Write the structure tokens for this entry.
Amino acid sequence: MKRRVSLVLLYLAAASVGLGSTWFILKRVGLEGVTAGAWRADLLAGSADAGLYTRARIAVNAVLALDRSETIYFLATQDDRGKPLRAECRYRLNGVAPHAAWWSITAYADDNFLFPVESHRYSASGNSLNVRADEIFSITIGPESTNPDIETVGTGALRLTLRLYKPGAALQRNPATLKAPTIELAEVCP
Amino acid sequence: MRRSLDRRKTWPWQRHLLLAVLLAASLHLLAVFLIPRLIMNRVIATAAAEGARPYLPPPIDHTHRRVVMPSPDLLYAVCAYDLADGPLQIKLNGSYPRYWSIALYNSNSDNFLTISSDAIGERGVDITIDETRSTRQGLLLMRVMTGASPQWLAEAEAFRKQLVCRPVAQLTNVN
């Protein structure tokens, strides 16, 4: 009887490890692919050439992503110093408008959904900032009290997505050449 | 008389440990393989449950929690399809001066076809999708850039309403 119980526990533990490791890899392990500053892009998002893990990771974190020929998605979860981005902190992003038909920076909470802010200040784009390619822009991201361009609420992880729709030829060939926006902590976090 | 001992052979612990490792690895790989399909099945079922085809969701805000990482700068149109109903006809007339695209996804989440504004211009879209290109079930997702202007939003709304996605048989007049 004791042996039987031990065996059941052993196989239950094995199942937990198998499924738990899946969750860990798909949710917690960082993206592979190219990097530009604090930003990372998986160039196989949406692609039929994506491997098993890339396809699963994209499905969990960004299902219905477009193939890189149409859109490149850069994701930032850390600032330029390598510190995790947090919703309760204020950040300043300085950058140069990329060469793309349209681009935007959007903030997401740890669950990959928009922050519940009544201001609806979820994102900034080339249109909202009224900047053309190669022009400088600067935006702030943080809680309402900091009067940000993009508003967050609560505590926990902050994720930023930089979307480039119809990126220019140079970026298509080598996305790592992106002049990525810098991400700096603007003031001491609470 | 003493009862005889149980003569069944019992595996050694080493064999059980090996089997446990194989079980963990198998479950892991199976989960990684199935997850995109399960997620797409759910997305397709959710879209199909809306009834209308295409389904035109309201503008994205923080109350949208069906698909992760939605863009608040885009207006969407969604069309779940099942090629068991026959080939799918996709039509879009009219023009829109800002970015738009129509993307099609297989049931394993691969984006196998994208049509966008710069390639089409004003000539519109008229294509047919069958099983030589798509898995039996799939999803069409149209994106239309809106911006912060109410006028742009109204124009985007009018444009996405032009989308037609139905089985060919439903579009053909039968006398």
